[in-house]
Amino acid sequence: MSVTTIDLLRHGETEGEGVYRGQQDYLLTEIGREQMQSVLTDELPWQQIITSPLSRCASFAADLSRDTGLSLAYEPRFIEMSFGQWEGKTAETIEKNDPHHFFAFYDDPVLNTPPQAETLIAFQQRCISAWQAMLKQYGQRHILLVTHAGVIRLLLAHILSMPLQALFHIDVPFACLSRVEVYSDGNGDFARVLFHAGRL
């Protein structure tokens, strides 16, 4: 039986705080970079870094790769969900100007997609596709995946067999670190969450 370990790291605080960032390319603040740096220890366990190509993830991943010599791969399927017309706007603004869509989305995000946004089903399909490809290419290694809150929620929900409607019940703060182990015996995979919102 082979084992692959994946540490999921959310980016830290960004510019434009308080808005739906989605697929817009906001930069990390200095505080955000410090938040991500704070999860590291002198002895890093990883053998491979994979990152979303958006700057708030990729800039930290590239610096870590440069400083440690760890191999780095960019995976665009691990970018955040597109929020369409909501991107760049605060929840307060959206709630005030479009309360119907706003509350409907949080009541049932599967059936109520924000205007011009990516559907949750499409988001799920691309993230799980990237996850499966990652396991195939980097199996039996210890991987650091630097990505976004929505991606982490979706992957954890997938592993835990949670309905998509419950996605927002998972809190993913800045620089949140979660660890997953995936066991494979050639006939299928079994994944389990070892910790969430932890530290190395």
TrEMBL record:
A Pfam match: His_Phos_1
Which domain of life does the UniProt lineage start with? Answer: Bacteria
Q: Gene3D superfamilies, from UniProt?
A: Phosphoglycerate mutase-like (3.40.50.1240)
Against CDD domains, the record matches this protein to:
HP_PGM_like
Q: What is this protein called?
A: Alpha-ribazole phosphatase family protein
Question: What lineage is this protein's organism placed in?
Answer: Bacteria, Pseudomonadati, Pseudomonadota, Gammaproteobacteria, Thiotrichales
